Amino acid sequence: MQVENITPYGDAPGGKARQVREMFDSIAPAYDFMNRAMTLGIDRIWRSRAVRLLREEPHDDILDIATGTGDLAIKLALELDPVSVTGVDLSEGMVEIGRRKVEKEGLQDVVTLGMGDCLLLPFTDGAFDAVTCAYGVRNFADLAAGYREMHRVLRTGGTAVILELSTPRSHVVKPLYDLYTRHIIPAVGRLVSKDVRAYSYLPESIAAVPQGEEMTGIMLDAGFSSARAIPMTFGSCTIYIAKK
Asked: Is the pLDDT score of 181 beyond 80?
């Protein structure tokens, strides 16, 4: 099944975008805790690697799509010293938590978080040097359209850096990974977030999202001139980097 057809609440009313927004509003208070817990803190290492990939690229103005509670946007601002980092997300609950974190870091003059649809970004063509997205593209209602929007708002020579969870291929690692993601994480998620479906949706969407060359092929079809995949931690996460 295509990832666009995997929804948090199945046949419940509303399309994928609406269901994703409702899901993240529901789990927003538990989101940061669950991110740390379900990745054993390794998500911080993955974000650091993504930020380092932009260090030698133009990065004065950065757009962070599906910014959530702002972890990547804040890290970009702290480590790259850009002029501006703009974060957009469908979920008001997630953005509100992110704004409090930005204020706590004293980054209000650099980081701006707001509501925004990744398939219809409210920015002019070529507005940004770099576009980032962490753990968000599998939630897009239309993956190809999302990449076309990223390409549109990038300046010529700009870079897109995408972090996404992926499925290990190793015959040794994969059974342990499946046990962890399909049983342990949903059980803990139900206890912590009280949302029965949210953390069952997670492994379903990871299994369905395009990976490796299939994902870079979609990026190239969206107009990027080059794209490559960098697997990390036995293939449980992948960074995709593409140039306009």
From this structure: no
